[in-house]
């Protein structure tokens, strides 16, 4: 059984991903993801402007959508040939009597799997983070075939996405995102808040982006303080009642963890957050917001080696 996956957001891939076949597992079903291939590019005539479209994977060499070719994507830079990918091919080994059952399970779970896959890549590469973009999420679409088309009986809504970001994922990052989507795990709550901050940035809502990012910071600080109190055998409330504000808890972390980043978080995080929280600045600047989010991500990376 084969499938054509129309991605809900264009995937930004580096050259090393193109043409690869990578293993995945969707709702307990083992499958392979086939990436489109690079077009033949004449080095004597560098590509300028719109590039030749990506070629289909070998599996899908003859596939079309109706009577039209499939828009697998296109290279967006030369000579590194970073590319935009819009479609992926799937192959699934399946006994004939299990085709309909496998199709049902894939249709039920593909949207959640693809959402987790793309969310992971957004955190790793920031692809799709664009102040002029549309943060609304589109819908992925899977078409399954076993000699003939296997219909999905649940209606779906289709919309179009126009990517503008230039952060391209490597093969290693793609493999990590597949592993996360396969696992069925949730992102840590603080990283879910970072994704919400990204969404706010895309909508030019800097105030909300700052609040979401700082909520992520408060979560990780609270968890670390609780762990510290457990090691000492004292109630967390004793320290938390003394260090109540965000700025105070950052100072507390510096006392109990000598390796905690030593940047000027008062000016980079605390003051901008307090200004928007207390209505002193409802329209923070882009660079202030971006620097704050970067600083929060730095703290999260210090305490967490993984996103989930």
3D architecture notes:
The protein contains 8 helices and 9 strands. It has 308 residues and is of the alpha+beta class. The protein folds into 2 domains: 2-185, no CATH class; 196-303, no CATH class. 42% of the residues lie in helices and 15% in strands. The longest helix has 27 residues, at 99-125.
Q: Tell me what portion of residues adopts beta-strand conformation.
A: 15-25%
State the low-pLDDT regions, or none: 159-165
How many structural domains can be distinguished in the coordinates? Answer: 2
Q: What is the number of helices?
A: 8
Between the first and last Cα atoms, what is the distance in angstroms?
32 Å
Task: Using the CA coordinates, give the radius of gyration.
Answer: 23 Å
Shape: elongated
Q: Could you spell the SSE succession in H and E letters?
A: EEEEEEEHEEHHHHHHH
Query: Which structural category do the helix and sheet elements fall into?
Result: alpha+beta
Total number of strands:
9
Q: The biggest beta sheet, please?
A: 7 strands, antiparallel
Fraction of residues in H or I helices: 40-55%
List its traits:
single chain; 308 residues; alpha+beta; 7-stranded antiparallel sheet; two-stranded antiparallel ribbon; 8 helices; 42% helix; 15% strand; elongated
